[in-house]
TrEMBL record:
Parts of the chain that traverse the membrane: 37-57, 64-86, 92-110, 117-137, 149-168, 180-198
Protein's recorded name: DUF308 domain-containing protein
Keywords recorded for this protein, A-Z: Membrane, Transmembrane, Transmembrane helix
Species: Streptomyces fuscus
Record field: compositional bias (Polar residues): 1-15
Region (Disordered): 1-23
């Protein structure tokens, strides 16, 4: 990250992974927030909570499922957008693509909650499949990323979830609700594991 000259804000410490001074400009503030394990945990909870709601409410109508899933996609997209700034500039493209994909899919779900089961299944399957592939690419390309194996496992789970939803289109709202709820809970638990793995990596480096 290039440092501005002359009017740069005061240093706010040192990045534990790059060793560079942190400043109070908006990009660095977003970077510290997006790179914190608590932010990752918040993103994981944004995935886990809708999954639990769908599992305990299997008789929800298709409109409710679409709205719940649309909110999940929008909130998760916002979390992932901020998390992008916690990465090196050269590694941000996959994260930006994922966040844009989540937001666009969330808008589609919220804009037309009366859509068919098949349409909702396609939206969900494509989002999980593409985001899983991009996350897997990040895990492979970022050689110095701590706990790459955990992140890669989360990516594989997303890929499998996308393939399952696309290959097994549900014939009823109840079946779709249970399927989406199950995968959201599994993805949320995996993301929680990623967050705690990141916390342990930060603590080990800063110790």
């Amino acid at each position: 990250m290039t440092e501005s000259q002359g009017t740069a804000g005061p240093s706010s410490g040192t990045d534990p992974f790059t060793g560079r001074p942190l400043r109070d400009d908006p990009e660095d503030v977003l970077g510290r927030l997006g790179g914190s394990w608590t932010w990752m945990l918040g993103s994981a909870l944004a995935t886990l909570v809708p999954g639990i709601l769908l599992l305990v409410w299997p008789d929800a109508t298709l409109q409710v499922v679409a709205v719940l899933f649309g909110l999940y996609l929008l909130v998760t997209g916002a979390f992932r957008f901020v998390a992008v700034f916690g990465q090196e500039r050269g590694e941000r493209v996959p994260g930006l693509l994922i966040s844009v994909l989540f937001v666009l899919a969330g808008v589609l779900c919220m804009r037309n909650p009366l859509q068919t089961i098949a349409a909702l299944s396609v939206i969900v399957g494509v989002v999980w499949l593409v985001s899983g592939l991009l996350t897997a690419y990040t895990a492979v390309a970022a050689k110095d990323l701590p706990h790459r194996g955990v992140l890669f496992a989360a990516a594989l789970l997303g890929i499998v979830a996308g393939i399952v939803v696309l290959a097994l289109p549900s014939e009823s709202a109840v079946a779709l609700t249970r399927l989406l709820g199950l995968w959201l809970v599994l993805l949320g638990l995996m993301e929680i594991a990623v967050a705690f793995a990141w916390r342990s990596a930060v603590r080990r480096i800063t110790a």
